[in-house]
Amino acid sequence: MHKMLITGANGFIGKKLCQLLPAENYTITALTHQQGEITHAAIWQSLPPNDVVIHLASKTFVPDSWNNPGVFIETNTLGTLQALEYCRKHGAAMIYISSYLYGNPSALPIPETAPLFTPNPYAFSKKTAEDYCKFYHDCFQVPVTILRPFNIYGEEQHASFLIPMLIEQALQQTEFRVKDLLPKRDYLYISDFINALIACIPLRGFHLFNIGSGISYSVAEIISLLQKIQNTQYPVFSENIQRPNEIMNTVADIQLAKQILTWEPSTSMEQGLRRLLHYNQSANSYS
Fold first, then answer.
1. Which of 121, 192, 216, 241 could form a disulfide with 69 if both were Cys (CB 3.0 to 4.6 A apart)?
2. CA–CA dist 211, 209 (Å, integer)
3. Would you list the domain boundaries of the chain?
4. Which CATH superfamily hosts domain 2-158+188-214+250-266?
5. Tens digits of residue pLDDT in 142-157
6. At residue 188, does pLDDT exceed 70?
7. pLDDT band for position 127 (50/70/90)?
8. Average pLDDT over residues 153-172
9. How big is the CA angle at 284 (ends 279 and 287), to the nearest 5 degrees?
10. What is the C-alpha to C-alpha distance for residues 244 and 246, in angstroms, rounded to an integer?
11. Dist. CA 74–CA 248, nearest whole Å
12. Is the CB of residue 186 less than 8 Å from the CB of residue 151?
């Protein structure tokens, strides 16, 4: 039975991971922000030994990283350093959840070997944390697997993200309003991401994987799918505002994950949207 430490266990991904890990195979130590800052060594010293650390805890909202760059860099880099020190002390393996770090790609799909781009403090902190992971593997033989997820979506995601916002507009049954219809993203349903994460648990050595669906959808295409599912024709209004340095399309090359993890996504975009609509309808009916 694996003994597993999960940081950020009460977050969007952490909660789902704790739900889906089979209890007969794993005992879980959950570390949440209520227990203290992950940058503090005393927090880690109070934890029991574990075989694997899944490091999810981080600051993630990119606009806030411009307002508080020091907090983002400290939490996401020094927090990861403390996790790596814990792994070194206890002989544990590390699974680090990084981020999309490729900027505007020169070609699609995007492989793990594509040039990296860190245009904001959040991305810079994630890239630096990856460097710490590689250093601890090379110098201290800490087994490390880095995942670079593209756009994960699913139940209980914060309403500031695109898909939860569109789901809510679909359920309001009046209209869709967005900033821009054109940007395309590679979206992955959360349970598929969790399955990829679980497939990484037995790995040792050093590994780095893109985790996505391998397909991209524009904002307009997602709205069309929602209209199709609900059999509606609500008006769609776009402000046609393109964000500075907007990335217009992302598609993950997931061949390495398919090959080494024997993993691939099983939830289509339409299936994922149907599940979210049903979930939110049920939640609203009890609120």
1. 121
2. 6
3. 2-158+188-214+250-266
4. NAD(P)-binding Rossmann-like Domain (3.40.50.720)
5. 999 999 999 999 999 9
6. yes
7. very high
8. 95
9. 130
10. 5
11. 30
12. yes
* pLDDT tens digits, 8-52: 999 999 999 999 887 778 999 999 988 888 999 999 999 999 999
Q: What is the mean pLDDT of residues 224-236?
A: 97
pLDDT of residue 119: 86
Q: How far is CA 48 from CA 44, 119, 203, 245, in A?
A: 9, 38, 22, 44
Report how far residue 257's alpha carbon sits from residue 147's, in angstroms, rounded to the nearest whole number. Answer: 10
Residue 285: what pLDDT? 63
CA distances from 125 to 70, 71, 78, 130, 144 (A): 10, 10, 9, 9, 18
What are the Cα distances from residue 167, in Å, to 9, 152, 229, 287?
A: 25, 15, 11, 17
Q: 28, 50, 6: which is closest to 197 by C-alpha? A: 6
Query: Whole-prediction pTM value?
Result: 0.95
- The candidate with the shortest Cα–Cα distance to 16, out of 204, 191, 176, is 191
Cβ-in-10-Å burial (0-12, 13-18, 19+) of 160 comes to exposed
Quote the tokens at residue 85. 């020190």
* Residue 237 CA to its chain's centroid (Å): 29
Amino acid at 43: I
